[in-house]
Amino acid sequence: MTNMIKAYAAKEAGAKLEPFEYDAGPLGDEEVEIKVTHCGICHSDLSMRNNEWMMTTYPFVGGHEAVGEIVAAGPAVKGLKVGDRVGVGWNAESCMQCEQCLSGYQINCPNLVGVIVGRHGGFAERVRIHWAWAIKLPETLDAAKAGPLFCGGITVFNPFVQLDIKPTDKVGVVGIGGLGHLGLQFADKWGCEVTAFTSDLSKTDELKALGADHVVNSRSSEDIAALAGKFDMILVTVNVPLDWQAYMTALAPKGKLHIVGAVPEPIPVQSFNLIGGQKSVTGTATGSPTVVADMLEFCARHNIEAVTETFKMSEINEAFEHLESGKARYRIVLEADFS
Questions:
Q1: Are 108 and 163 contained in the same domain?
Q2: What are the tens digits of pLDDT across the range 262-311?
Q3: Is residue 298 part of a domain?
Q4: DSSP 62-90
Q5: Calpha distance 209→253 (Å, rounded)
Q6: Assuming Cys at both sites, which of 45, 109, 116, 222 could form a disulfide with 121, CB separation 3.0 to 4.6 Å?
Q7: Rounded to whole angstroms, how far apart are CA atoms 37 and 33?
Q8: pTM of this prediction?
């Protein structure tokens, strides 16, 4: 197999993605090479393309929601073989020897490597990662819809695991977009009473079909105030400032305001909001390999999938424009069409 890989890359911040070919070099002993069939586009890909987080290297090949088939495996790869159908998320490798890795929290490894940070991702015909981060897909999951689960999905699934959310809990999801529409489905199938907070009440019927028991205007402080003391967890998926005091007041005793959206401004929290009722503000990233595998099994068991729009990989710039316009409902998936 050739080490040359065809891809789409941005040559500078904000640039359109152009056909690009690079030499991946020899396959690492613990690496697998995956032939990409589908790859989701996440808002993080847009942020990285534009170097908003000041850590992008160019030429930049994004793509961290890739699904495909293993076509090569290094001699030290464990548990996987050529022909396995797997998915790739935000992370490509971790050290596997620190306390965090050995205790199953690889997501907190100090040497964690991102798939598209300083290396090339899944907007390509093939992508390479450490075997531990290539997660097998259950047979019943549709490869054309599974990609977004590896970033958007695990981002909103992991809080249910880490915060020990119970089926009797009341959960609010703020922002019903690429993350939130999956959060609703997870909360519903987890057994929770689910409230969707959205700025677009025209989506009420759709949100209830996704699992919401109640729909509330996320911008109405009055409507949120009427829910004081209700929620065991409020999952914030948006990246814009909110009426934080109103949401803190809506938490039940020991309730958690859990942040997974990249809110750019500091979140003001009064000490008495935390002391009174033993409330907290928490956050998580994506998830460690075993949690990703559990999420996929949960999705397969409960028929959970992303609501997607599909573009050909060769239409990648049109897909990025659609994402940037805010019109995507709710995740975009690229279908590989390399010749």
A1: no
A2: 998 999 999 998 999 999 999 999 999 999 999 999 999 999 999 999 99
A3: no
A4: ---SEEEEEEEE-TT--S--TT-EEEE-S
A5: 29
A6: 116
A7: 13
A8: 0.97
